Structure prediction request, 442 residues.
Amino acid sequence: MRHAIIVLSMLILFIVPINAQDSFSDDTEISLLQWSHFVPSYDEWFDAYLHDWGEANNVSTSVDHVNFTELPTILASQIEAGDGYTLIELLFSPSEFIEGLHDLSDINAIASEMYGERVGTCQATSYLPISDTYYAFTHGYVPDPGNYDIALWTEAGYPSGPQTYQDLLDGGRTIFESTGIPVGLGISPELDSEMANRAVIWSFGGSVQDENENVVLNSPETIAAVEFMAQLQNETMTDRVFGWTAASNNQALIAGDVNYIINSNSAYRSLQKIDRPAADNIGFTSAIEGPAGAFASSHVWQIYVIPSYVQGEELEAAKQFILDHTAIYSDATYNSELYNFPCYPSTVPQLDEWLEDDPFESTPANKFEVLKSVNDWSVHLGYPGVSNPATTQVFSENIITAMVARVALGEMSAEESVALATERVEEIFAEWRAKGLVGGAE
Prediction:
């Protein structure tokens, strides 16, 4: 009964009038390209919202959804062609496309004035300090907590799951040796692996760049993190992690084939729908701690860009849509089943309440309460500097996972592999620095 009342109250809450505009001409159109959301019900809600917004604002609207891996390629081709979608939503900082995008400083300023301070990781994925440009509008981000099998970790002596990387190694080894069920951190050229390996490197004190955009990858801290990941793979995991795709750890968690992953809540939400007792056995941890602290990247971000070929009323309508969509972000968070967190916390005042008492009937109801601390440990791909074009390219080339894989497979020492990776990273930074889009002293 309690949850029925909550759901009913949410339905009442989300009947929000769309802010109609009278300024757009009858022939104004906007077209959107977005990823196929990991929580399918979100796309159903969004498509209906976009249609209603268009009718209320005298704007013809359309939206297509594709696999998130296709988005950068489509954006690049349409910028080159000078024609295409009005708005494109990406999941990672599109700073490398800055020369083909509209400066959205105006609507970023309006949103900040209306809703206050934004989350730091959202600022970092939309603003390039060296050019003082907001090349994007980041409206949401996704926490990347640890997901663990409560029964297995309790039996191993860690009822709250691993809290440190030493716990992950010791407890993961115990579970693997006694049950054959491994830890599941990918070491493969894909999204989740890149995020997991960066979390380890940051937590050991390493990083790709420093706060001034200088390359610092080749450090004792990075080497120690790579050695740890190789040991973790050799002692707690199987070779499957070298061939994982972005769906692999989700599928493994749902199948009960791993005891721990780093991922958003999407795998858990899928498991809730097909096997409620199994879902009840999944717990969540914040970023686990290494020698230098506890850090994890956001899983993804929701980032709108407007290519520079968009002009006139189409451009103004696109900007209005972004602002109106931000204004109703409680709807977005709820309809994503708490997957989308708001960049402007004031737009979702119910978030802490939902984390304490999940409206989608988790057991226990406060399963997601650990995410209340997300802004203490969730960072971005350029941390501790900015998400600049160079850090985005390092990510897209999967340099970090290749660096770790060479060591875990016994092909190189950690020192050799880190040095090899650093050579390529320095080349990338030099290329973008020459274009005036990356800072640093070199």
Q: What stands out?
A: DSSP finds 19 helices and 15 strands in the chain. The first strand starts at residue 29 and ends at 35. The two ends are 63 Å apart (CA to CA).
